[in-house]
Amino acid sequence: MRKPCCDKKLTNKGAWTEQEDQKLVDYIRTHGEGCWSDLPKQAGLRRCGKSCRLRWINYLRPDIKRGHFAEDEEDLIIKLHALLGNRWSLIAGRLPGRTDNEVKNYWNTHIRRKLVSMGIDPQNHRLHQTHTLHHHHPPPLENQSSKCLGTKVNTLATKTLDKVKSDGADQEQVLSDAGSSLADETSSCRCELNLDLRIGFPLLSSQYSEQQDQGSLQDMQIDEGEQLPTLPLFL
DNA sequence: AAAGTTGTCAACCGCCCTCCT
DNA sequence: CAGGAGGGCGGTTGACAACTT
């Protein structure tokens, strides 16, 4: 039986009060982050150390960017999710001022639903069988490219995660390499993907939705070698 | 206006990993 | 090497708000 991390009878739970926030902020300003297990006692808080850490990281930290996600942030989340899966902390690490919790919540409440409504499986980023963008130009793109890309991306994702996990691997470099590597890998397929893993892309998801709403994507012709819209990823 | 439903997001839980002894 | 402690993470919950009937 695992020991609880703190005595539940002596700790408060639920929403933090302003006074508690102030105590936590004051303590960290003076002593810095670290040693979360001792912090509550030192700071005079009746909270579990983990709860203090979470409150600081997700809410009180001064460099946190709160509020609505920008379109380019949303695009980046989708791309990184296609590459890394539910590794929210890694994804959040690429979004300055965003926390893993915030990214995870945003994914579950906004992006996931959006992808589903567009006929895309949010887990593997593939189009469902019943949806196609190319009604007038069979065979559908997803049949040609997704099988080809799916395997490559899965392999690449595994490699990427291994690198990120391994000692001394620079996350920035690994992700950058993964983007380039995938571009190389996909060059043999019919269509190319823009996998630039940075904020700022030529076609934003909102524009994509707009075009889809207007039906323009359904009739869109994609010539050989032409670049796909960057989102969503047809993996 | 009230009741029911859905959406959002802060916070908690418990598992896993790493570090230290 | 084994075991414990602490930190980090992803999944889930629950309170509250917003919306619908």
Automatic annotation (TrEMBL):
GO term, biological process aspect, one: regulation of primary metabolic process
Superkingdom classification of source: Eukaryota
Gene Ontology MF, one: transcription cis-regulatory region binding
Compartment(s) of residence: Nucleus
Transmembrane segments: none
This protein's UniProt keywords: DNA-binding, Nucleus, Repeat, Transcription, Transcription regulation
Pfam families linked to this entry: Myb_DNA-binding (PF00249)
Gene Ontology CC: nucleus
Domain Myb-like residues, every copy: 12-62, 65-113
Protein name, UniProt field: OLC1v1010652C1
Organism from which the protein derives: Oldenlandia corymbosa var. corymbosa
